[in-house]
Design brief:
The protein is α+β, with helices and mostly antiparallel strands. It is built from 4 helices and 13 strands. Helix 2 (28-43) packs parallel to helix 3 (68-81).
Length: 329
């Protein structure tokens, strides 16, 4: 009876659980490839020519492209960090900055050394036999993805329409590679990863440095990178330009950026012309320097010990101690 009740209790408590899995329409790898290419392409644009100017960003020609909102926001951030004064209304701006994109997307290619998956044909007849499937046998397999961003901007005067500045095209590629060796993998590497990873986890090889240095540029101290942190002053009295300092390879997590005020250049005030007399002016003679004050000479030598005085002092101390003992008796 007890066994039956125990079995019934176990059956009643038994159960199972399920987990629901879902994926987005776009993979995170694709989004990282495109956003990384956009960040690095826009960071290469130098807005020094529009520093301190009132500008309006005209982005109507990139509406509908891939990640157009991200491109517009990144451009606005980079323009602000470079010292531009962005106006939300066209009539309030002096210059118009127009942006266009030539390519924003991804490519993919696969490489396989081995036997790909093959479906054998079926055999007909009185008793048809369906074809067998041969699975993939890969000795080495690699899948490479590439994100591309090509962007260009130019500026012109709002009223006159005269061209002011153009950046030229900026094209940047970001890469991601997944590699399998004898079925082990994927080993993930590329510009969107920090080093090499194995199935999403950072791969640490003993006695080897797997970390890659931070990307830098020849003018890392003067350029503003949108992927770095910028600290601005709370209430600047003049437009500011953030001078982002790229982290050194020895300290990849080091963030460094400060803002420097930009003061308008002031032309020097011309000095009033002083008439030059034709007759030479008498130059008063220079008075002789006052004689040095007489100070008593001070000896800087250290006093030498006197052995006679030390002996007399010791005798006096002995007599004083002897007298004190006589009074006590």
């Amino acid at each position: 009876m007890h066994r039956v009740m125990l079995a019934a209790l176990v059956i009643a408590l038994a159960g199972c659980g399920t987990t629901r899995w879902s994926d987005t329409s776009r993979t995170a790898t694709e989004q990282m490839l495109i956003s990384d290419a956009v960040d690095r392409a826009i960071s290469q644009i130098d807005f020094t020519a529009l520093e301190g100017k009132d500008v309006y960003l005209d982005a109507r020609f990139i509406f509908g492209s891939v990640d157009d909102r991200y491109i517009i926001s990144t451009l606005r951030q980079h323009m602000l960090a470079s010292g531009c004064v962005i106006k939300d209304k066209l009539d309030d701006a002096t210059y118009i900055v127009e942006v266009r994109t030539g390519a924003v997307g991804t490519n993919r290619n696969d490489l396989l050394f081995g036997t790909p998956a093959t479906q054998l044909p079926s055999i007909g007849g009185a008793a048809p036999v369906s074809g067998a499937a041969i699975p993939e046998i890969a000795l080495f397999k690699r899948t490479s993805q590439q994100g591309v961003c090509k962007v260009a901007v130019f500026a012109y005067h709002r009223i006159s329409g005269q061209p002011v500045w153009q950046s030229g095209t900026r094209r940047v590629d970001s890469k991601s590679r997944d590699t399998w060796v004898f079925g082990a993998g994927p080993f993930q590497s590329g510009s969107i990863y920090d080093g090499t990873k194995l199935s999403g986890e950072k791969l640490r090889v003993p006695l080897a440095d797997t970390t890659r240095p931070e990307r830098s540029s020849p003018n890392a101290n003067s350029k503003v990178w949108v992927s770095q942190e910028i600290i601005f002053s709370d209430a600047p009295s003049a437009p500011v330009v953030a001078a982002a300092v790229g982290p050194s390879p020895s300290s990849p997590n080091k963030q460094a950026s400060f803002a420097r005020p930009v003061t308008p250049s002031l032309s020097p005030t011309p000095l009033a012309a002083t008439p030059i007399s034709a007759t030479p002016q008498a130059v008063p003679p220079t008075p002789p320097p006052p004689p040095p004050a007489a100070y008593p000479s001070v000896s800087t030598t250290q006093p030498q010990p006197n052995p006679t005085a030390a002996t007399i002092g010791a005798i006096q101390a002995f007599d004083w101690a002897k007298a004190m003992r006589g009074e006590q008796k």
